[in-house]
Structures are given as C-alpha cells and as structure tokens.
Amino acid sequence: MKSLSNKFVHLTNYSVNKKNTEYKSNLDETACQGHKWALKALWTYLTQKGVNSEAIWEKIKDIVIKTIIASEPYVNSLVKMYVRRPYCCHELFGFDIMLDENLKPWILEVNISPSLHSNSPLDVSIKGQMIRDLLNLAGFVLPSTDSVASRPQTRTDSTCSQGSALKEKPRPASECFTAEKLKKAYYLTQKIPDQDFYSSVLDILTPDDVRILVETEDEYSRRGQFERVFPTHISMRYLRFFEQPRYFNILVTQWELKYYLNKHKGLELLKKWCVKGYHVGTGMDLAQMWSLPKSFFLQKSSVQSNGFSKLEPDRLGNLLSPNSGDLVRCLEPSPAQSLPLYKCTVGADQKPDGCLSDTALVL
Length: 363
Hints:
Elements: H1 7-10, H2 14-17, H3 39-48, H4 53-82, E1 94-99, E2 105-111, H5 121-138, H6 145-149, H7 155-160, H8 174-188, H9 195-199, H10 207-221, E3 226-230, H11 247-259, H12 263-275, H13 294-298, H14 313-319, E4 341-344
Antiparallel strand pairs: 1-2, 3-4
Helix pairs in contact: 10-11, 10-12
Keywords: ATP-binding, Ligase, Nucleotide-binding
Region (Disordered): 148-167
Protein name: Tubulin tyrosine ligase like 4
C-alpha cells in the first residue's frame, strides 16, 4: 500500500515512465538492456532462459483474435453506417499485454490511437517499418484520372469518401446474382454444421467468392512484416465466437485450410478464373453456376440419422421468399465483410524462435 503513490510502479505507459530518474534508454533493437525492448529481443532473452516463446506468442494471438471478435458487432454496425467503400477502410490498434509470474499473457487495454511518436532510434526502426507496411497493407484504391474529371467534385464527394469516383463493382447477371445470395443463405442456415459441410463451400465458387478470395490473397501479398492471424487454416475454431455467422469468414477460412500448404496452386487457380473474367460474371455458363444440392430437396426431417442437424428449410424459405422479392435478406446483418486481422511483428523478427511458418500467419 505504501507504493500506491508511485506512478512509475503502477502505470505502464512509456510516456510516464521515461520521466523517471532511474529510466534507462535503449538504442539497439536487438539488445536486452534498458527499460524498452524490441519484441524480438524479448523472444531471444526468453529462449536463452529455456522458455517456449512460441507458446506465449500463440496465446497472445488468441487473445487478440477473441478481443476483436468481441467488438465485431459494434464495429460492423459502424462500418455499415459510415463506410461507403471498403477499399480504404483500415484501423491500427495497440494491444497492451502483460505477462504474469507464470508467463501467462493478460490483456490490459486496447488503444485505438496508439502512439506513433519516434523519440529514439529504436522507435524509428520499429514504428517506421510498421507505418510503411500499414499503408501498403491498406492498399488505397485511387480513382482514375478520367473518372474524376468526368464528374464535378462536391463537398460530399470529397469529405465522405472518394467512392463515388471509383468504378462501381459490375452488376452480374440476374441468375448469377440469385445464385450468390442463395449460396450465402444456404451456408448460413445450417444449425450444427460440420467440417464436411463447410468444405463444400469451395466446390463451386461464385464471382463474388472469387473477388473476395483475390482481394484476400492480394492483401496478404502486401503484408510486409505484419502477421495475419485471421483467417488461417486453424480459424474454424473461432467462428463459433461470432455473434452472427459470416459467409465470407467461412469461405476464406476454408480456402486457407485447403491451400495453406500450397499457396501457389490456389493463386494459379484464382489467376485462371480472373483471366477468363469469371470474377466479373463473364466467362461462365449455367453449368458452372451454384445451385442448391439435390440432397436439400430430399430432406424429410430436420435431423439426419447421423445426429447432425440438417438445414432448416423454413428458415431458408423465409430468407429467400419469392413473395418478398428480396434475395438480399440473408442472415448476415450487414453487408460489411469480416476483414483479415493483422498483428504487427516489426521488431519481432516476424518469426521468433519456434514461430509458425508464413503459411499460418494471419494477424
């Protein structure tokens, strides 16, 4: 109790502790000295002490993923209200994690505006790299000169977004549009889905599916020293924590699960579809279009003999009611897509001793 008035003991903020007379600076990102270390220096130190740094890192990533999922409904509602185009929407969060005496990580807080001040060579080397990778990862989409010149800029256009000057996503043919909405509803109305059911989402891809997968892979290629923690090939375990199921979470997670050991094969497949124009609804015929499986129409009861719950036909019928004429009314409460999560590993050498391989990085 005698130490309660000592703010340097109970406050972890660097902006406070650097004013302590006993504070020791650190100019070397590889050195285990002073009061401010780079993450890779910490992993090196713990490894030398015989500590499994990979296990700690995995627990920290688990905390980050679950924290983001807990805030997903709130963030998603704001995205729906204020974001006209998702291309330039990104957010940088700062997670304060504390390790207890047993090296178990605990989350202290999440900063929505983490400090980017660089007061030392250590700050410059870590934060400078992180900011560069962040802007590359965001992948700002700028309108073409012709599209900007073809329409006058209004105050609304310049302050809200530049989305009005961006080229609109091509509207697919009505049959393709119906198939896309039907497929989403089908995969969101499974009461107790299993892996066999989820894996079939890749059997026949819609143009919308291909666009999302292309954007996901393109973003991954720009990650720099960021580590993607969601989606990965192990992300299926986290889907149950979402307040509402997300079709694109299912899609990208299954894609990672299928191709994480052979990225080249998946990329070549996407490239082939894009060359044919499949992602914009061309280069396809009715035989390639997704439709409800025959087993759906043969179901007589709501429970299969193997104990797994079947689709709820009544629920699917309500979602795609011909009377309403609204095929967009699927289970997803908003059009916002759950975007991949990335965790900055600048200063962490991207892969500390024992860290997962690049194919498994998703934060």
